[in-house]
Each structure stands twice: as C-alpha cells, then as structure tokens.
C-alpha cells in the first residue's frame, strides 16, 4: 500500500528486485541504483608500512582484511573456522599471513577469543586517513556476509587495490568481477574459502593482477557517475508523471535548476 503510488522504487542491487517483487512490489517500477565509491579516499596511493608499525601488525606478512561491523549478521561465525584452517595451512606451507579485523561489534569478543594464537589482529574502529591506509596496505579483502544489499566496503576495498572474496548471496557479487577482481565463493562451502584464501596468499603475481583489475574496475563507479544515474531516474519519473497529465515538456531540464553543493557534485531542484 505504501509503495503503490510511487513511479519508481530504488534498490541497492539487482539481486533484490526479485525479492521485492515476491512481497508484492511491481518489479517494473524497481530500479537498481548504480553503485558509487569515493576513489580519492580509497586509493592505492595510501599504501604504507607505517600503518602496520603503528597498529602492531607485522609488516612483512600477507594481510587479509575485513572492515565492518563485527557481528553475526556479517556471517563472521563462518569466517572464524575458515581462518583457523587457513592459519594451519599457512603454517604447514611456511606462508606468512595475518587476518586483520577493522571494526567493532557484539561478536568481537567471541571471535577474538576463538582466534587466539591464529594470527588474527583486531584493531577496532578506524576512520579517516588511517582507514584509507589500512585498506590500501592490506593484500586482500574478505567479506563473507550473506545479508548485505550491496556491500559498500567491497567497493572501497577494490578502489584501494584489494582482490575481494565475497559470497554468492546478496548484492556484493554485483560490484566485483568474479575471477578478475576477486572470487565469488559459496556461503556453505568453507573449504572453497580456505583454498581461495591460501592460493592468493601464496601467489603474489595473482594478487597483483587482481589488484590492478580492481582499481581499474572502480574508476567507472565514481560518486559523480552514481549521482547522475540516480538523478536521471528522477527525471524519467517526472516526465512519466507529466505524461499522465497530458503535458509534454519542451526541454527535459526545463523545470530544473542546476546547483552545486560544496563537494562540486551536481544536484537539481524542481
């Protein structure tokens, strides 16, 4: 009843169009927003060993990072036993690797306890340039969530040059390229995760190749491009509404006044 009068309904990813249709929304009205990421804040230019020296994480190791709320809904209880197996396999093969958890939440104490002795580093909340440096100075991004509608952190990781590992559930798989900028892995297949993580830890050249591809892929996902598509959907809805009133605008932007906000991103008002 609430959504019926609307001309257009936005969703964060294509994956949820069917789900919204299943609860009665008209799928013809649903538009998946073009994702956008700040490629100046999240960039490989911030890579530095100093961030590891400052946080007490070994500088020489390969680092798999997670950024976000440390909670059950991010599916971190799956990542915990996976990292235990990764740690054992790395020790067996003589590979040097650390798991870095950035963020906080109700699952942190349990996860930190369960991964004691497994080279898992918990850094708590980080923001600003420090967060940018943590992204850029890691080597891969792990995101096991099965509930995220899009997964902004997956885009931030790629913009910073990280191969990303995500599940086949939800929206994160839509903002990466399987086999090119990372891997889409089964959320019920922990062995697949272990194999993929260890393989990337062991293969510097493959990580570097995926890193370059990730950076390149995110250049077409700027905030400006995302906003332009967002606003275009409003213009289409506006024209469709006028058509129902028998009005044809002489110019698509005739009734719009362009303004600029402080960041320089175009906005418009009727």
Number of helices: 9
Low-confidence stretches: 254-270
Provide the β-strand percentage band. Answer: 15-25%
Rounded to the nearest angstrom, the distance between the terminal CA atoms is 26 Å
Radius of gyration: 21 Å
User: What structural class results from the helix and strand content?
Assistant: alpha/beta
So what's the overall shape?
Answer: elongated
Following the backbone from N to C, one meets helices and strands in this order, namely EHEHEHEHEHEHEEHHHEE
Q: What is the topology, as strand order, of the major beta sheet?
A: 5-4-3-6-7-8
Structure characterization notes:
The chain has 270 residues and is α/β, with parallel strands linked by helices. The chain has 9 helices and 10 strands. The strands form 3 sheets. It has a 6-stranded parallel sheet with strand order 5-4-3-6-7-8, with helices on both faces. The chain has a two-stranded parallel sheet with strand order 1-2. β1, α1 (15-22) and β2 form a beta-alpha-beta unit. The radius of gyration is 21 Å and the shape is elongated. The two termini are 26 Å apart.
Short summary:
By secondary structure, the protein is an alpha/beta fold. It has nine helices and ten strands. Residues 254-270 have low confidence and may be disordered.
How do the strands and helices of this protein lay out in sequence?
Elements (H helix, E strand, L loop, with lengths): L8 E3 L3 H8 L7 E3 L17 H6 L6 E6 L8 H18 L3 E6 L5 H7 L5 E5 L3 H10 L2 E4 L8 H8 L4 E4 L14 E4 L4 H13 L1 H15 L4 H22 L12 E4 L5 E4 L1
Parallel strand pairs: 1-2, 3-4, 3-6, 4-5, 6-7, 7-8
Antiparallel strand pairs: 9-10
Helix pairs in contact: 3-7, 6-8
């Amino acid at each position: 009843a609430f959504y019926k009068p609307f001309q257009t309904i936005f969703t964060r990813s294509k994956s949820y169009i069917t789900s919204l249709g299943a609860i009665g929304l008209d799928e013809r009205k649903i538009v998946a927003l073009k994702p956008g990421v700040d490629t100046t804040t999240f960039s490989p230019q911030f890579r530095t060993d100093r961030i590891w020296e400052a946080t007490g994480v070994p500088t020489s190791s390969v680092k798999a990072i997670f950024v976000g709320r440390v909670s059950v809904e991010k599916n971190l209880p799956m990542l915990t036993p996976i990292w235990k197996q990764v740690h054992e396999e790395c020790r067996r093969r003589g590979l040097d690797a650390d798991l870095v958890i950035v963020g906080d939440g109700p699952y942190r104490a349990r996860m930190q306890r369960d991964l004691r002795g497994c080279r898992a580093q918990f850094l708590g909340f980080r923001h600003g340039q420090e967060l940018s440096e943590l992204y850029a100075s890691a080597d891969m991004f792990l995101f096991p969530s099965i509930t995220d509608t899009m997964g902004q952190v997956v885009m931030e990781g790629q913009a910073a040059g990280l191969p990303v590992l995500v599940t086949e559930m939800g929206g994160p798989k839509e903002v990466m390229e399987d086999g090119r900028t990372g891997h889409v892995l089964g959320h019920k297949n922990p062995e697949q995760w272990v194999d993929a993580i260890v393989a990337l830890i062991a293969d510097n050249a493959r990580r570097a190749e995926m890193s370059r591809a990730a950076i390149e892929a995110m250049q077409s996902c700027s905030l400006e491009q995302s906003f332009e598509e967002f606003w275009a959907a409003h213009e289409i809805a506006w024209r469709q509404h006028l058509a129902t009133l028998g009005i044809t605008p002489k110019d698509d932007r005739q009734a719009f006044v362009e303004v600029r906000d402080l960041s320089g991103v175009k906005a418009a008002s009727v």
